[in-house]
Amino acid sequence: MRPPRPRPPGPRRAAPAALAALLLTAACAPPAEPAGIDLGSGPPRAGTVRPGALEGTAMTFVSYGGSYQKGQEDAAVHPFAEESGARVVTDGPTDYAKIAAQVEADAVTWDVVDTDAIWGEAHCGDLLMPLDFTAIDTSGVPEGLVGECTVPAMQYGMVLTYSTEAYPEDPPTTWADFFDTDAYPGKRGIGGIPNDPAPGPYEAALLADGVDPADLYPLDVPRAQDRLDTVRDDLVFWETGAEQQQLLESGEVDMAMVWSGRAYAAVDNGAPYTVSWDQWLPVMDSLGVVKGTRNPRSAMAMINYYLGADQQARLTELTSYSPVHTGARPDLDATAERFMTTAPGRAEQAAPVDREWWSANQQDLVQGWSSWLAGR
Amino acid sequence: MTTAPPAAPASGAARTAARRPALLLLPALAALLVFFGVPLAGIVWRALTDPQPGLANFTWFFTHPANLDALGRTFTTAAWTTLAALALGYPYAYAMTQAGARGRALLTLLVLVPFWTSLMVRTFAWMILMQDSGLINQALGAVGLGPLHLIRTPTGVVVAMVQMLLPFMVLPLYAVMAGVDRRLLSAARSLGARPAAAFLQVYVPLSLPGAAAGALTVFINALGFYVTPALLGSPEDSLLSQEIFTQVNGLLEWGRGGAMGVVLLAMTLGLLSLGALALHLSGNRRRP
Question: Which of B133, B152, B235 sits opposite A194 (nearest CB)?
């Protein structure tokens, strides 16, 4: 028998094979940044990148969309792309399940992601990678906001806001007042996201119950839930920032625990509310880099750029969130200035939020919170 | 429905194709397999293996009262939605059969226009209508009534879901009702039945297959509704779809989320087969 002649891979057969290979690599392995990226010599300076350092890099920035992400893009992401030469694609909204799926499939297409700070710290090492602080300058970032895998993306506060029409005199100004339905009758807006028991309701309930701010942590969750139960009939739950604004602007609630930025937006739109900063709770978003990213160096460079004083000032002007660089000098009107969590004296009024405790207990807290919300 | 004209003589190729209907189904089946079957199998697999092989995820589901509450609420909400859609859809579909050509076109358009509008947009529209200072309460206030709490209540969710799902009730009902031979009603009348009795004993049973098809479609769609209850409802009254979202997106507990999905799917399939069985039995009973 004649042995079968090996057929040379002619162009007709090679083309589909090449196409298949291309599709496979496109599907499984996102393009990686060029090797040997030179970010320049010397220590990094926040807000800068060596011009043209990232020519040939294609990377992705992901955040929560809306005016917030647009502000981030205009203040930092697009200028970074222009200066560094990187091609930056933006995507959103941040979706924890998508991050987990990308990491699990080792097909990471999201590089820099904006997440809740507690989630970011809870998933340091399994879904987010440790940051390279030889490439990121955090010297301008306020104390205590930088984690192993995260830097702050902005700051805001969980604040008590009340209707000046419902309470023209002697308004509710403390969490004790918020939980006192006899002295202050009325509907109360409060966060009710089942998968996200953010700092706020528990802390406020315990402070209202007489717990000393210094002894707040570890949180006595059953006690907090019992206290919340006492006002349950008067609670209205919001699940998004837009809903907070809707509650205030439609007058559905007489007082509410909301994000300072949303309270500002509602007031700016003419809603008759004002904020009490007594025992406000500092919260923030983080930037992190997805574990398994093909563009680690570029991602670090982007974060370093994002943390610059000018970028942060611009971000604040565009979004009303407070900057995470102590040297940022945003140009704001008087109303916006009042809503800054970085305004003078604010830090002293804040109640403590132990992010480390929250991230260490995240799983139990989510379960307990969604059960409580569901009435169990 | 009118009888179709006799089919034109088919060409040779078409005849071959007609003899192999399976071949024609192949593209659809392949798409279904790749884009539905495989992911579904993945979900079942995860429910049984993530984080450890076994039935732990299902045990967890059935031993946590909050889950059973959500399951109960999901079925109650779907049942109310179906009943309300039937109550609204039945007279509407009947009116469609009785209207003239123009009237029918208008009525059909009225059912379909919202159907072509994004679910998201409609849900947000309901938010604006239902909020405490919204149009509904302003109108009620103007005549000295209200305010009525609709947003973030189960009632509000059902009202909006009925509006979303009404086309699924009206269209199958109309299709069946249009095929009912109205001379049967005249026959019943000529045999001495009062108009109401003729309607209830002759027309309604003949329209039942449409009602059953509509009710089943609405019910099953309602079981999996996510956007509308998530935006209009209160998290206190969350449905199973929202609980699945919490497990999958919030906790990254894909095994548990998968188990919840499997439970919902199994119950839906169970109901479907019960419905099919009931239809089959009633069909047999009516046959002379």
Answer: B235
d(CA B148, CA B265) in angstroms, rounded, equals 35
In tens, the pLDDT along B204-236 reads 999 999 999 999 999 999 999 999 999 899 888
pTM: 0.83
Is A206:A256 a contact under the CB 8 Å cutoff? no
All structural domains of chain B, each given as residue ranges with its CATH number in brackets, are 55-286 (1.10.3720.10)
Q: What is the pLDDT of residues B158-176, one digit of tens each?
A: 999 999 999 999 999 999 9
Per-residue exposure over B117-151, b if at least 16 CB sit within 10 Å of its own CB, e if not: eeeeebbbebbebbbbebebbeeeeeeeeeebebb
pLDDT (0 to 100) of residue A139: 97
What's the one-letter identity of residue B51? P
- Best CA proximity match to A351, nearest among A186, A174, A229, A213: A213
In this predicted model, what pLDDT tens digit does every residue of A200-230 receive, in sequence order?
999 999 999 999 999 999 999 999 999 999 9
What's the Cα-to-Cα distance from B206 to each of A373, B6, B167, B185, rounded to whole Å? 46, 26, 20, 11
Nearest CA distance, A56 vs chain B (angstrom): 33
Query: H or E element: which one contains A301?
Result: helix A296-306
**Burial track B262-280 (b if 16+ CB lie within 10 A, e otherwise):** bbbeeeeeebeeebeeeee
In this structure, what DSSP letter does residue B224 have? T
Q: What is the pLDDT of residues A162-183, one digit of tens each?
A: 999 999 999 999 999 999 999 9
Residue A22 has pLDDT above 60, yes or no: no
When pLDDT is cut at 50, 70 and 90, the band that residue A197 belongs to is confident
Angle at B164 between CA B160 and CA B168, to 5 degrees: 140
ipTM of the prediction: 0.78
Return the residue in B127, B152, B260 with the most chain A beta carbons within 10 A, the one to mutate for interface testing: B152
Does B277 score more than 90 pLDDT?
no
Confidence of residue B148 (pLDDT cuts 50, 70, 90): confident
Please report, for residues B113, B121, B272, the alpha-carbon distance to residue B118 in angstroms, rounded to integers and kept in the order given: 10, 5, 27
- Report all structural domains of chain A as residue ranges with CATH numbers, in order of start: 46-154+286-319 (3.40.190.10), 156-283+335-373 (3.40.190.10)
Closest CA to A344 of A279, A283, A277: A277
Nearest neighbour of A374 by CB, restricted to B70, B133, B134: B70
Instruction: Point out the residue among B131, B151, B242 whose CB comes nearest to the CB of A194.
Output: B242
Chain B: residues touching A (Cβ < 8 Å): 64-66, 69-70, 127, 131-134, 151-152, 230, 234-236, 238, 242-243, 245-246, 248-252, 254
Q: Which of B131, B236, B252 sits opposite A96 (nearest CB)?
A: B252
pLDDT of residue A5: 46
B152, A95: Cβ pair inside 8 Å?
no
